[in-house]
Design a protein that fits this description.
Number of domains: 1
Radius of gyration: 17 Å
Structural class: mainly alpha
Largest sheet: none
Strand content: under 5%
Order of helices and strands: HHHHHHH
């Protein structure tokens, strides 16, 4: 493989790692947020799974539909991590710029998803979303994506900048 192709592969893998980490952090945050609000621990994954099971997924208990909601959430988070890695690659040696760009991209994803994607794919998410918690979840995802340079350097393809 050409060196440029290998570099893109490593960046994509690092983006996938950061995206899945962010997805897990956001999932845990929303599950705890739902429990604190009284909606139930499984309300967020069930809400996401309503894309597949509209009638059965809006329960507050752990069901097989919950697993599909968790899987869909982690799939979207991983794919977003790969897409974000394209935008964050130029800031590998500038951690602060990388974090700020990741936060901006995460908030842009929030706006785009709740303005265009979810109304078309799964309107229940837009109707039943807890507004402040959803924004904070996207900010948390941006914070995790801000760790992207660390994942690139941990893969060992690039050397971190001298301190």
């Amino acid at each position: 493989m050409r060196p440029a192709a290998v570099f893109v592969l490593w960046r994509s893998l690092a983006g996938l790692q950061a995206g899945v980490l962010g997805g897990l952090a956001v999932l845990l945050f929303h599950m705890l947020d739902g429990a604190v609000r009284g909606d139930g621990f499984w309300a967020f994954p069930n809400l996401i799974s309503s894309a597949f099971f509209p009638a059965r997924a809006l329960s507050l208990s752990l069901r097989w539909e919950t697993v599909s909601g968790i899987a869909l959430h982690l799939l979207i988070s991983g794919l977003l991590g790969i897409v974000f890695s394209i935008f964050l690659a130029r800031y590998l040696y500038h951690p602060l710029r990388c974090r700020v760009t990741a936060l901006i991209l995460a908030l842009a994803w929030y706006y785009g998803a709740f303005r265009f994607l979810w109304p078309a794919v799964n309107p229940a998410v837009v109707l039943y979303q807890p507004f402040p918690g959803m924004v904070l979840g996207h900010v948390l995802f941006g914070v995790c994506m801000g760790l992207y340079p660390r994942f690139v350097f941990d893969l060992g393809y690039l050397q971190p900048p001298p301190a």
